[in-house]
Amino acid sequence: MKTIELSRQRLSFPDVIALATHENLIIRTPEGREFLVAEVDDFDREIQLIRENTELMAFLDERSQETTTYTLAQVRQRLGLN
Q: Where are the domains of the chain?
C-alpha cells in the first residue's frame, strides 16, 4: 500500500486511478484527512484473507482483551528514553 501526500504532489483523478490499478493507495490531504483508494474486488478479497488469517485474528482478539494502560512517562522509562 502506498501513501500519497497531496500537499507534496498534485494528481488528477485519472492519475490516482492509474496508480490504484497497481496497488492500494492512501491519499492524505494537506489537512491530514486520509482516504483509501482500492479496487473493490481486491479489497473484498483482502478483507476475506485477513479474516481467514487465524493467527492474526487470535492476536487481535488477545490485544482487544488488554485493559492495562501506561502513561507516556512509564513507556519512556520502560524503553529507556528518559
A: 2-78
